[in-house]
Design brief:
Blueprint (H helix, E strand, L loop, with lengths): L9 H4 L6 H15 L28 E3 L5 E3 L15 E2 L12 E4 L5 E4 L6 E5 L9 E4 L4 E3 L8 E7 L2 E3 L8 E3 L12 E5 L4 E4 L8 E3 L9 E3 L5 E3 L8 E7 L2 E4 L32 H6 L3 E4 L6 E4 L10 E7 L5 E9 L1 H26 L1
Antiparallel strand pairs: 1-2, 3-4, 4-5, 6-7, 7-8, 8-9, 9-10, 11-12, 12-13, 14-15, 15-16, 16-17, 17-18, 19-20, 21-22
């Protein structure tokens, strides 16, 4: 009878159910199978139930019976690797709680959670066949470590403080950006450094941001450039005291609450004839106004030093240049003030000397 065709018992095949010993042996075999003990020696190869059929329904080999009593997708029996089907896998902590006992917890969704007892303890490593040391490892602190696979780690990247990543070696990149990729005029606030040496910066307001330089012992910046193009220098012990800024097209001011002093071995002015056109001779210098101009000593702006000089309103208009004056933030405080063009004044004085020399010659000729 087929329903008893489990154990290799001729009396059962012959249809003798009254053989109590064989019925008992049959139930014992079933109990053994249910307990996980499958023995080919007491299950006939031609029986309706055999070891391969225990992995699934007799008519569906894609199903397998799981420990919870449910039939689910069977393992791939043609795969030589080990396959485990489970809701989660743990080597230590009973759950995915942070700070649990050391171990690895793999969630059903694929997240891998690792708990170690020390920050410097590796949690993940990779290497190539033949390596003697790990090429890449992640510590429990999140520090990333790289090496050649033959020596110790020589490159790292880790959290140095809140919101800070740090490496103890050199970071090389084709570009570094703190804001938009590809900073251009008018772009959102940020900075970008390109591998061709360009440093591009954009700020929300013109008189902020830019470039700042100092040395370790300083308490103030020694040199800064803001987004107005204002250059500021200082000693590093106090706020900057020297500033250079754009005043007008092709014009710079040395000004920080007061006009400063340029020092140089010489100041030269382009005066090549080839750069000039519509040339006419200046024959009538305003001698009377030049001679009437007085020379003064005075204090200027907020400085205590006394200066020696002229007043622009007493000089000929040909040597005067007018323009705006700015404060420390680059804001216009005077729309127009008068400046003396020293090159023009020097040229006018030359013309005056020539004129006076001509008059002297004429006077000498008259008295001869």
């Amino acid at each position: 009878m087929g329903q008893y065709n489990i154990v290799n018992a001729p009396s059962m095949v012959a249809g003798q159910p009254e053989d109590i010993s064989q019925v008992l042996a049959n139930f014992q075999a079933i109990q053994t199978i249910l307990n996980g003990g499958i023995d080919d020696s007491n299950i006939r190869a031609t029986a309706a139930i055999n070891p391969s059929k225990l992995l699934g329904y007799p008519s569906d080999s894609t199903k397998a019976l799981f420990g919870n009593g449910q039939w689910k997708a069977a393992l791939d029996l043609t795969n030589a690797g080990v396959q485990v089907l489970a809701g989660s896998i743990s080597t230590g902590p009973p759950s995915n709680a942070i700070g649990a006992v050391p171990g690895v917890f793999i969630e059903q969704g694929g997240r891998v959670l690792i708990t170690r007892t020390a920050e410097s303890t590796p949690t993940w490593g990779s290497a190539l066949v033949g390596d003697t040391l790990w090429r890449f490892a992640i510590n429990a602190s999140g520090q990333l470590n790289w090496g050649s696979g033959a020596g110790g780690y020589d490159t790292n990247l880790y959290r140095a403080a809140a919101g800070q990543l740090k490496t103890d070696q050199t970071f090389i990149a084709s570009a570094l950006s703190t804001g938009p990729i590809g900073v251009t005029p008018g772009a959102a606030a940020g900075a970008e450094i390109l591998n061709n040496g360009y440093i591009m910066s954009s700020a929300a307001t013109a008189n902020t941001g830019g470039l700042f330089m100092t040395v370790p012992a300083d308490t103030q910046w020694r040199f800064t450039i803001d987004h107005n193009g204002l250059l500021t220098w200082g000693t590093g012990a106090v706020a900057g005291d020297t500033q250079l800024r754009r005043a007008n097209p092709n014009m710079l001011d040395l000004y920080n609450g007061a006009y400063g002093t340029f020092r140089a071995a010489a100041f030269t002015v382009m005066s090549d004839r080839e750069t000039k056109r519509a040339i006419t001779e200046f024959k009538k210098p305003p001698i009377e106004k030049l001679l009437a101009a007085k020379v003064y000593t005075y204090r200027r702006d907020k400085t205590k030093d006394r200066h020696l000089g002229l007043m622009a309103d007493e000089l000929p208009e040909e040597v005067i240049v007018s323009g705006p004056v700015f404060d420390d933030d680059g804001e216009v405080v005077h729309e127009s003030m008068d400046f003396v063009d020293l090159y023009k004044l020097a040229a006018m004085l030359v013309a005056t000397v020539q004129h006076l020399d001509q008059r002297l010659v004429e006077l000498e000729a008259t008295n001869a």
